[in-house]
């Protein structure tokens, strides 16, 4: 690779940093881009995914909360 080819391939670092700042980049991590939407072959799930046909048991009903009137009456009884 000649010096001219290297100069064409890699821009001036100062100009590149100025351009990054103008674009709002505040951190550079790698020279290559990362495709976050790419599906990798080496992903293994540690937990099985439930299918749509799986029946999920319902939770027991929670007791009803007291009304404001009941809370005030209880507070008045306790204060007396």
Task: Describe this structure as you would to a colleague.
The chain has 80 residues and is mostly helical. 38% of the residues lie in helices and 0% in strands. The chain is built from three helices and no strands. The longest helix has 12 residues, at 68-79. The mean pLDDT is 78.
The value of Rg in angstroms is: 32 Å
Extended strand count: 0
Q: Which overall shape is indicated by the principal axes computed on the Cα atoms?
A: elongated
Let me know the largest β-sheet: none
The helix content, as a percent range, equals 25-40%
Brief overview:
By secondary structure, this protein is mostly helical.
Give descriptors for this structure:
mainly alpha
